[in-house]
């Protein structure tokens, strides 16, 4: 059990690093538009927000694949496709139950679920802050009035 906890903790830290890198990269790319909100039309801000969403989607896919690679490396799942499917379902905390890990490794999947909740929450917080900055109530009303 200790091996599984240590392994899962290592994967968790790896995915946090991946996600932190994505947050910093996306913030760096969007820093100009974030500081010049008055200069951008609402439709442009929406487009840049979509860019952020796609960036985070890519980060989440990479994080899911990291977990899947570990499941394959320890021999828990038969194919990489099966490992990615199981990891995605677990990371998103859907948990269909059609594929499960052995009792030796099932604790790792519980840690992956917690990991997914935390990283989705981090993504949501970032996107909420961007939306709050870009779509402030007074600006939305000004944009509607111009239409």
TrEMBL record:
UniProt KW keywords: Membrane, Transmembrane, Transmembrane helix
Family matches, as InterPro entries: K_chnl_dom (IPR013099)
Keyword Membrane: yes
SUPFAM superfamilies in the cross-refs: Voltage-gated potassium channels
Protein name (database record): Potassium channel domain-containing protein
Pfam families documented for this protein: Ion_trans_2 (PF07885)
TM stretches of this protein: 6-27, 48-71, 83-101, 113-136
Domain of life: Bacteria
């Amino acid at each position: 059990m200790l091996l599984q906890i240590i392994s899962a903790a290592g994967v968790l830290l790896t995915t946090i690093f991946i996600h932190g890198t994505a947050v910093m990269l996306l913030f760096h790319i969007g820093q100009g538009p974030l500081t010049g909100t008055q200069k951008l039309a609402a439709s442009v801000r929406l487009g840049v927000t979509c860019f952020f969403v796609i960036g985070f989607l890519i980060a989440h896919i990479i994080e899911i694949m990291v977990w899947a690679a570990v499941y394959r490396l320890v021999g828990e799942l038969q194919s990489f496709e099966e490992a990615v499917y199981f990891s995605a379902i677990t990371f998103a905390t859907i948990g269909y139950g059609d594929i499960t890990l052995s009792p030796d490794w099932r604790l790792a999947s519980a840690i992956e679920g917690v990991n997914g909740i935390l990283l989705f929450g981090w993504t949501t917080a970032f996107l909420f802050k961007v939306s709050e900055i870009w779509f402030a109530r007074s600006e939305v009303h000004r944009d509607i009035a111009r239409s």
